[in-house]
Amino acid sequence: MGKSLKSRLKAASLALTAAIGLAGTSAPVSAQVLLYDPNIPSSPIEPSDPLVGIALPGATPAEYRAHLIWNLRSGLNVAALQCQFSPYLRTVDNYNGILAHHSRELAAAYTALEGYFRRINGPRNGPRRFDDYSTQTYNNFSTLQAQLGFCQTAARIGRALLAARQGEFYTVGAAQMRLLRNSLTPAHDSYLFTRTPIVLAPLSLAPEDCRTIRDRRERRQCERDQRDARRRGS
Question: Which of 82, 75, 93, 89 has the alpha carbon at shortest distance from 21?
Answer without folding.
Answer: 93
